[in-house]
Amino acid sequence: MSSVPSFFFVQDFGPLRHYFSSSCLRSSQHQLARRSVWTAAEIFNSEEPKPDDHALKALRHPLGVPHQPKPGENSGIDPRSWREKRDDLFNYDKHLVRRSELTKQVAKPYFRDWSRTKHHQGKTFTAPSRIFRAEKSLYFPNMVGTTLASPKVHSDTTSVLRDRISLVSVYSGRWAEMQTRSFVNEQSHLALQGLLKEDEKQGGLLQKVEINIEEDWMKALIVRTFMGGIKKQRREEDWRRYFLVRRGVTEEIRQAIGMGNAKVGYVYLVDWLCRIRWAGSANAEEPEKEGLIAGARRLVEARRREKEEGKGIAKGQTAAASTDGKR
């Protein structure tokens, strides 16, 4: 049997060898692409909660931050000097902290909040039937933004919440705003309307505060464009209680006050020391409305009683001082 010349493989099977090698490369790329899609599907399926996780749970622990809020906090403005920024730039430990924060942001699926609205209309928890005890309650964080009364000057929410009992609505978007109205709208909530009128005759300790968080500059620009219409829908004395917040509300703050879904509206009952005593999410249910009214009435009575006791103590001290002066 004659031997096959070597040039036969080089000249005739060279193109076939090139073809098979290219086919193998395309096949491996196709398998890699299929594997990538399958891996992404695994990731998204792992993020999807199980059917048992969709069951609503009652809020049993206080919400808020552990420290008392101060005006100027959470403004979103970096207060560091150029020297401090330079030192932090070469600080490896702070790089690790920043890397951890960025990893959490990247790991969060883009449509997670929207997908969660399919269950219970985005309701994160059911509101408690009673307010939290004062000694166990945590604080509502300070937020900085512009108001309808002063659209060019930044104001603090803490300055408005202090010394008053507040129904604070926090939302981002029209849908979330309508959800908060199911709690605090006077026209559809006659019991709240009666409580506000009764309180206004006795000194006005109860107020409604709105915080519209729009971190996207384009959405914030749209809200600013329609500020005139927003003013017409509210009384002039309420203009300073409507906040448009652009920055400063971090993920840590959202988790602390129970804002698990950015697309959903939340309502908080905050006392005169800026402590969160009650909280509700999404659309209100009748038991939640009753719990909110009962808690607000209880706080108003407690604050009024505290003021009267303070006046009595002040009168007693004045009378004692005048008696000592006569002696």
Briefly summarize what is shown.
By secondary structure, the chain is of the alpha/beta class.
What attributes characterize this protein structure?
7-stranded mixed beta sheet; globular; 327 residues; alpha/beta
Helix content: 40-55%
Taking all Cα atoms into account, the compactness measure Rg is: 30 Å
Please summarize the sheet with the most strands. 7 strands, mixed
Q: Report the structural category.
A: alpha/beta
Q: Give the N-to-C terminal Cα separation.
A: 141 Å
The helix/strand series, from N terminus to C terminus, equals: HHHHHEEHEHHEHHEHEEH
Helix count equals 12
Instruction: Enumerate the spans where pLDDT stays under 50 for 5 or more consecutive residues.
Output: 4-13, 15-21, 32-49
Q: Write down the overall mean pLDDT.
A: 80
Number of strands: 7
Strand portion? 5-15%
Strand order, main sheet: write it out.
2-1-5-4-3-6-7
- Shape type: globular
Task: Outline the fold blueprint.
Layout: H1 6-11, H2 14-47, H3 82-89, H4 92-107, H5 112-116, E1 144-147, E2 154-156, H6 157-161, E3 165-171, H7 174-184, H8 190-201, E4 206-213, H9 217-225, H10 227-232, E5 242-245, H11 251-256, E6 266-270, E7 276-281, H12 286-326
Parallel strand pairs: 3-4, 4-5
Antiparallel strand pairs: 1-2, 1-5, 3-6, 6-7
